[in-house]
Amino acid sequence: MTLHLPGANGTLRAYEPRTEPPPALSSGSAFSSRTVFSAAHVVADPYADTTPDGPAAVDWDATLAFRRHLWSHGLGVAEAMDTAQRGMGLDWAGAAELIRRSAAEAKACGGRIACGVGTDQLTTGTLAEVRGAYEEQLAVVEESGAQAILMASRALAATAQSPDDYLDVYGHLLRQATEPVILHWLGPMFDPALDGYWGSDDLDAATDTFLEVIAAHPDKVDGIKVSLLDAQREIDLRRRLPHGVRCYTGDDFNYPELIAGDEQGFSHALLGIFDPLGPLAAEAVRVLDTGNTEGFRALLDPTVELSRHLFQTPTRYYKTGVVLLAWLAGHQSHFTMVGGLQSARSLPHLARAYELADGLGLFPDPKLAEERMRNLLSLYGVDQ
Question: Per residue in 196-225, pLDDT tens?
């Protein structure tokens, strides 16, 4: 049945939704050629009587079920990251509970998990306080049995006076870490408070500082996650990494080419877009495991238009589209987000996300997705 979707120009356009479900993609074991994490969203409790600036109310059953869905396809889960609304609805208390629950679930089902370590107990503070906040979170992650991802810190960005301050804080943490960690460089397009991270607005200078941190502690760095949305910069950076240190792409604009790689190497993956793309992304990586790069690109290249749409400026609101698609795909019963973030994107944006995802065959039950999209349109006053 035809849907009438609103466009950016204020007019409605006719769209014929897919009627047949896509071919089922089999679940499977871990990959052989790449290490792949999906950063995962949290499912809000829609019945909680809360406010946008109150503590996050999480539907734990639905949240953990979604992680089991990702693990069932062989993907690792990157937990309590930007995709889980860290600093945009999910506070440290909620993140700590999420880490403990998800790590226990990972252990029970044999899933791979890495968890975000940050400083979101603080807004600003001294360097000693920033180190203490990082240490508290690192202890929670390590005690849970998960791998640690040292995330960029708003408090450190606000406090640091020079690159040396970054070298001091990160060196201190890496010396303490019991197992190799993943370092995360999140660009200001994802969080404006991180502008000038690593002590400089000059990305070349910032890169030098970042690499200096790694070079001083290569045995404590499993890899780096780069989220700068600049494919060539990521390629140049990964070619400068010490032997054995992985590059995990966080580039939601250019991930197929970066994961496929070139004659001098490739990127592994830690991506928010692999939340809605989970089964399809896993299938593509299994094709890549056979050495079939063309087949990998044939599966993943068509998804880039959807990803670029979800992550369009202001990029930090991409989570709204991710949760919309989880609802439409039947992974949760509602389109509600912690912090009320379901209102962060316009109806035309959401309609286009639905159209692109439906065209890719991302919905196991296209009829359910159509019915839910129709209901959403009616709530906005769009007559069908």
Answer: 999 999 999 999 999 999 999 999 999 999
Q: How many angstroms separate the CA atoms of 272 and 260, rounded?
A: 18
3-state secondary structure of 237: helix
Whether this prediction's pTM lies above 0.85 is answered by yes
pLDDT at residue 123, rounded to an integer: 85
49 Cβ contact list (under 8 Å, min separation 6): none
User: Would you give the DSSP letter of residue 230?
Assistant: -
Distances (CA, A) of 47 to 44, 51, 59, 170, 323: 9, 12, 9, 41, 17
Q: In the chain, at which residue ranges do the beta strands (DSSP E only) sit?
A: 3-6, 12-15, 36-39, 76-79, 113-117, 147-150, 181-186, 221-227, 246-249, 268-271
Q: Which residues make beta-bridge pairs with 115? A: 79, 148
What average pLDDT does the segment 26-41 reach?
91
Per-residue pLDDT, 58: 98
Contact 60, 101 (CB under 8 A): yes
Residue 72 confidence (pLDDT): 95
